[in-house]
Automatic annotation (TrEMBL):
Keywords: Oxidoreductase. One of its GO terms (molecular function) is oxidoreductase activity. It holds the Pfam family Aldo_ket_red. It comes from the Eukaryota. InterPro entries: AKR_Detox_Biosynth, NAD(P)_OxRdtase_dom_sf, NADP_OxRdtase_dom. SUPFAM superfamilies: NAD(P)-linked oxidoreductase. PANTHER family: NAD(P)-LINKED OXIDOREDUCTASE SUPERFAMILY PROTEIN, NADH-SPECIFIC METHYLGLYOXAL REDUCTASE-RELATED. This is NADP-dependent oxidoreductase domain-containing protein. Residues 6-104, 121-305 form the NADP-dependent oxidoreductase domain.
Amino acid sequence: MSKVQVIFGGARVNPGRGFDNAGALQEIFPTLGFYGVHQIDTARVYGQSERILGKAKAPSRFLIDTTMPGGLQPGSLARVREQLETSLSEMQTVKVNTMLCGHVNPNITWMGANRVHKQHQVNVCYIHAPDRGFPVENALWSLNQCRKADLFSRINGYVMPEVYEGNYNVFARQQEEELIPRLRRLGISFYAYSPISGSFLAKSVSQILGGKSGRFVPGSDYWNMYVNHTNVAALKDWGDIAAEDLYSSAELAYRWTLFNSALKGEHGDRMIIGSHGVPQLVQTLQWLQRGPLDSVTCEKIDRLWDTIKNEVQAPLDVAHG
Ligand SMILES: NC(=O)c1ccc[n+]([C@@H]2O[C@H](COP(=O)([O-])OP(=O)(O)OC[C@H]3O[C@@H](n4cnc5c(N)ncnc54)[C@H](OP(=O)(O)O)[C@@H]3O)[C@@H](O)[C@H]2O)c1
């Protein structure tokens, strides 16, 4: 059984967000390498993230997956090639080097340390959100222009997409019902973001209801997705499970998603982690060395999901409310 690999999430690679500049980012590269993290996730809409990744020469050491805005900027799919070229120039203030040159065809990309990363390409190019007003044929045509120009290696467009990135954690498991089985049938890997629900699962009820906790400010997307009567009651039970079984609640959530959830290494699935700084990141990476949770704890987690899943407001993702 192959392991689910971990991806470092680049949303907080931004001034004042935890990884402020290229120097701060470069400091964590050896740590990421030590813990087997070889891939970074970013997006056009993440402020200076792509630019800082470029300045830190991240593309010479990591596979970079980036995301075009799509429905976050309605109509922008018509300019997706221009947007992707902007991303590439932001990230390639220095030349992108081959990650590890082997005997393989340079057009082929490989995962992990053995992966060959072609110059000037990104690894995965995502569309951030559906643009329901934009004709799908035109979107596919635009994406195919990028593909033909060889601007990314894992593909969207006229051939089958290879990766779906989605929200997935202990409180957001609807993906197991319909989406993941469908992805399996189509041979598409699932990359799970917000594995501790952007920190909801690391907080106490009073921290969340205090409304000053990072992303959980009243009215924010994450507030609207997670903060309701059922989830707040379940968050209290979640804290109790962690305390009974002597885990920190963040550790419990990360380890469940990596080891005990529907993610499977053999399908190429990944877990994308976030962090507000180096000590927190190191702590998370150390927890992930500890392996799967025991079956008694997993049963409690399943029972907790049973209390959430049939609620109308069970969390799915930001695009679907
Ligand atoms: N495609 C999309 O639409 C999309 C959407 C969301 C995310 N993403 C990607 O996925 C990445 C990860 O998402 P995420 O940030 O939501 O993931 P996450 O891992 O669920 O949440 C990260 C947050 O949890 C808290 N945390 C992290 N480590 C902790 C620890 N050891 N102990 C206690 N708390 C801890 C921190 O919040 P505090 O600062 O509050 O401590 C941190 O900012 C993003 O950077 C981005 O690349 C993509």
